[in-house]
Amino acid sequence: CRAQAKYGLTLPSEARDNAAFMTIKKCTYEGVIESRFPGLIARVRGVIEDSEREYEGDAGPGESHLWEHSMHVASHACRLAVMEGMDPLIPSVAALFHDAGKFAGGRYHEGETAEEEESARIAERLLGDAAMKPAEIRRVLSGLGALYNERARGNRVAAVIHDADFLSKFGALGVAAFFTKSVLRGRSLRSSVLGYLSKELTYAACLPSNMRTDAGRRLAEKKAGDSLRFFRNLLAELKDAGIADLRIRRLEVPSPRGGKALRIRLAAAAACPACGGRWRMEWGTEKGIKCTSLRVDWNCARCGKRLETSFCLPEIA
Fold it and tell me: 227-238 burial string, b = 16+ CB within 10 Å, else e?
């Protein structure tokens, strides 16, 4: 990206010629941002790491899971923007800030609106300190504000961040993050699979339909396939090792937004673990504050044992 810095080739998001230049130079999000705003990435990292340590009550220099995720999303955002014919600067910068407010002030900001407002506040301050032009700051803030706003679906920056965020949760790194979170929750491999794999399988199956950009859909097809293949192989090895015998059951559920049905994938025991009897399955959906959740009730026809699987249904773009 040295040539970009020398000739000032960062153009408005609609400009396709700069995106082509970025593709040729194989620019990364670091190069795109540092060429215009040296030191900005380090400052964002400091804010995110400090807030996460404060929230966890850890004064040590441990690594930040939130910063690692932010880097991953920014990397995807840069690539998606170029594939979409956009200048990657604004999407890359906005992606870097998309979760910056999650632990602001050492508190977990639950709810999309609270987190979004804190992220925008941090972005406005740091970008102002970096001497970013007011018009560019407004585009970053607009992208962050539209990310969770159903009425602002036309914002291209928000669309790129949305797709980048979901793509980061799948593929090899996404699967690795799933197991990292399981360790942090203190769960064994078996309990992680029993508790969370149905959601992971379903979100992977629905990933391409959840994309808001054409580039995102192309990448999602591969990542979804890679993730589903891994989890199928994992279930086969868990069975061979005698740890758990789970099968993937398919279910179609109406989308909360109408249109195409959602492809649900449930990881469930082949038979009741208590008596070996057959399961009877019943399901229903319930609209909550943040999402529409799916609840599946498993009832053993022989001994009456009951289990439940529930998770938020994926959104469809």
Answer: bbebbeebbeeb
